[in-house]
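User: Can you help me understand a structure? I only have the sequence.
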Amino acid sequence: MIKDITIGQFFPGNSFVHKLDPRAKILFLIVYIVALFLCRSFFSLLLMLAFSLFTVILSRISPKMIWKSMKAILVIVVFTAVLQIVYNDKGDILWKPFASGSFAVTTGGVYGAVFLIVRIIALILLTSLLTYTTSATLLTDAIEKLLSPLKLLHVPVHSLAMMMTIALRFIPTLLREIDIIMSAQKARGAMLDNGSMGQRIKALVSVFVPLLVSSFRRASELATAMECRCYTDGANRTRLRVMRFSWRDAAAAVVLIAVSFAAVFLSFCPISTILLFQPVIS
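Assistant: Let's start by predicting it. Here is the structure, written out as tokens:
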């Protein structure tokens, strides 16, 4: 169900990950993503996946919430894996359904599909924790601090950070709105789950038009509320919580850099071949 999607939600807590500086979380995530996409062997990829699972345990986020975030991209994962199997013809042939055709399932295709699935899972696990363990306010402040050098180029950093955070914050709200509208349209006899593909697409018009109207209404209400509270774009604004780097951030940085370096090193190290963790993505 759409209401089960947890992207953009924040779950308050007192864990080690919650207490990390929001700026450090964003920088750590960038380093992790770069290292993850530099991995070329299963050995290094499994190391990054283990680090993601360890971070999830430290965050004390419910496994049910993590599973909900994975369900949202399950179709994309399956579709990507199927494409990898279909178009990757490297390696030995494992199955050839048509004797006269060129299509065949190869070891390279299977390895590539599994490799991409593990990579996407590792990516979603850690990226989900950024919003799960960081409130929208702190995320806005962190983005603004990290982009503050752009102020020298007269870039409206505060406005950009605010827009990014508001967009992220309203994802769960819009998803709930979609679920409510779909339930209401089904009660009125809309064929959203039945009929041909064309009929379903045509029926979705009755969902997206009310959603668009609702989105504009919410945006107008938010703008009015900010104006009533005399909100000014970044002009001498004070913050309830002053962000400071602590020993937690230093310890997390050391562990992340060590894991990332080890993963990248193992991707190009001959030991990967010796252990039969062959690179499948060049």
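Now, to help you interpret it: The radius of gyration is 23 Å. The first helix runs from residue 22 to 38. Let me know which part you'd like to focus on.
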